[in-house]
Amino acid sequence: METVTLTHTAALARLGHALGDPTRTRIMLALRDGPAYPADLADGLGVSRQVMSNQLACLRGCGLVTTRRDGRRTEYRLCDPALAHALGDLLRLTLAVDPDCCGPDCTCASGAPSHEERETAA
């Protein structure tokens, strides 16, 4: 088993931050297919170019995407082909999701009973 370092922990925390936003997640999933330009990504995902610019800046700051100048345009790609594979692996996970958890009314961190616990008690 590989030794986990603070660098590994920081990298996973950045990935978690990136995946915590649905638009950033959709961008990263779109880039699994290959490099793309911001305008094309914005059109494909149905967001404004400003939103796309902000989200790409975040992903770049997290070290998850890289850029390459192409004349006057900038092409974005995932930082490492292994990230595309990891995202694919994450898509294949089967999770038991509590619909009341991790949303606006989430009680999992407060110690209050979960949705399942409330139904069992009823």
UniProtKB/TrEMBL annotation:
Organism: Isoptericola halotolerans
InterPro entries assigned to the protein according to its UniProt record, in alphabetical order: ArsR-like_HTH, HTH_ArsR_DNA-bd_dom, HTH_Metal-responsive_Reg, WH-like_DNA-bd_sf, WH_DNA-bd_sf
HTH arsR-type domain span: 4-98
Record SMART domains: HTH_ARSR
Protein name (record): ArsR family transcriptional regulator
Origin organism lineage: Bacteria, Bacillati, Actinomycetota, Actinomycetes, Micrococcales
Domain of life: Bacteria
NCBIfam families in the cross-refs: HTH_metalloreg
Gene3D superfamilies, A to Z: Winged helix-like DNA-binding domain superfamily/Winged helix DNA-binding domain
